[in-house]
Design goal:
The protein is an alpha/beta fold and 427 residues long. The protein contains 17 helices and ten strands. It is globular, with a radius of gyration of 23 Å. The protein binds 5-phosphoarabinonic acid.
């Protein structure tokens, strides 16, 4: 793939160790691609970038145009896979300090009243639309937030105008949210049954907020499509995405059970949050799995760097290296040189950042922290689409190499049962 590649030079893993997985990978690849349309397989995301619903896609663009024209703020209500993907893409592509024509705010991803009240205050003098996203249509956090914000909109605009500002993303025909949407005649977008929450960013789940934020969703899908084609190769030798999955499994077998996703790009903070959910919820089962953590360097070299360098040796790092920075600064020359920086005068800041990365990789590898490097040429819609697909496919392969089901999340139910008991639900 032109924009994306893996470098295992610093992983401590040999080619022959990787190649030993070739047959196993071939078998899993076949299994993964079998019956992608079957709703019980949850593998609909595999060829989604090639076969996505174009009618629904046009509807997303139309809604996004309306919201951008009539709203200062889009409140995205959702949790886990129902909001992290959109936030990951929007943050990765946005200039954080630029005034947006339509700002995206996220609620329904916690139960904290102060957080919600602060957002309510902030939007009080603004024009607002809502996109409530829940595949099951019954998750408590977004359900409560929707009740609050729907009420707010109805009080502000009246029931009829509020109805034109509420957009519901849910499954085709079930759940409380679906029933509300039908009764209130809200505009609906659907989440395919065979695509699970954390694999759904390239459906309406992620695409509507991303389009409202002003990004080109055609390019995101084009990037994902090129990745879907490139990584549909069952030959491990030519499939970087599967190599990444295999490398993780080899490192896990060597007692490296914590993976730290590192980048030198602060814009990728929420991309790492999305990645942590993808891998954590997919793999952490049957008392096995790699614990996914993340850092932004060089910031975290001054907080977690010490631990990574010399703490318990059960870590490995996966570095996302963005080869070309979106913009640059040349470090100036200073006659007095009191800060003693003239040795880098005339150099670009991106060059210094790169040297920090190279120095850190060498130091951590010396400290027995293997490094996998994922090289991405630059950050834009095409590359972000490719990165999303790369990690989704790698996650599925990796989970199946662990012999677990990477598409369910039975453990998430446990806290809900206790919370419902404590709140007196069903009494
Ligand atoms: O990946 C998943 O399936 C989960 O993280 C869900 O996205 C999350 O629990 C929210 O579920 P729902 O969209 O049904 O509200």
């Amino acid at each position: 793939m032109d924009n994306l590649g893996i470098n295992l030079k610093y992983s401590g893993i040999s080619n022959s160790e990787i190649n030993a997985y070739a047959d196993k990978v071939k078998k899993i690849h076949k299994e993964l691609n079998k019956n992608v349309d079957n709703i019980n397989n949850y593998t609909g995301w595999i060829d989604w970038p090639i076969n996505y619903d174009t009618k629904e896609f046009e509807k997303i663009k139309k809604i996004a145009k309306k919201v951008r024209a009539d709203s200062d703020v889009l409140v995205v209500i959702g949790i886990g896979g129902s909001y992290l993907g959109a936030r990951a893409v929007i943050d990765a592509l946005s200039n954080k300090f630029e005034k947006k024509s339509t700002e995206i705010l996220y609620v329904g991803n916690n139960l904290n009243p102060t957080y919600i009240n602060e957002i309510i205050d902030y939007i009080s003098d603004k024009d607002v639309s809502i996109n409530v996203i829940s595949k099951s249509g019954k998750t408590t956090e977004p359900a409560i937030a929707f009740r609050i914000f729907r009420n707010l909109l109805e009080n502000k605009y009246g029931v009829d105008e509020a109805r034109k500002r509420i957009f519901v993303t849910t499954t085709r025909r079930k759940g409380a949210l679906y029933r509300i949407a039908m009764q209130e005649k809200y505009v609906k977008l659907s989440i395919p049954e065979n695509i699970g929450g954390r694999y759904s960013v390239l459906t309406a789940v992620g695409l509507l907020p991303i389009a409202v934020a002003g990004f080109n969703i055609d390019d995101i899908m084009a990037g994902a499509k090129s990745a879907a084609e490139a990584y549909n190769n069952d030959n491990l030798k030519y499939n970087d995405c599967y190599k990444y999955a295999v490398a993780r499994n080899i490192l896990y077998d060597n007692e490296k059970n914590i993976e730290i996703l590192a980048s030198y790009e602060p814009k990728l903070f929420y991309f790492s949050e999305w990645w942590k959910q993808l891998f954590g919820e997919s793999e952490g089962k049957n008392h096995i799995g790699i614990f996914p953590a993340s850092v932004t360097y060089t910031t975290d070299l001054h907080s977690l760097g010490q631990y990574v360098q010399e703490g318990r040796r059960n870590l490995f790092e996966t570095v996302i290296n963005i080869e070309h920075s979106g913009s640059d600064i040349v470090i100036g020359y200073d006659d007095e040189n009191l800060d003693e920086l003239n040795y880098i005068a005339g150099k670009k800041l991106s060059y210094v950042n790169k040297k920090a990365m190279e120095g850190t990789i060498l130091a951590h590898v010396d400290g027995d922290v293997p490094n996998i490097i994922i090289n991405a040429d630059h950050l834009d819609e095409i590359v972000i689409g490719q990165l999303i697909y790369f990690f989704e496919k790698a996650c599925a392969m990796s989970g199946m190499l662990f012999d677990i089901n990477p598409f369910d999340q039975p453990g998430v139910e446990k806290y809900k049962t206790n919370m419902y008991d404590l709140l007196g639900k069903n009494k």
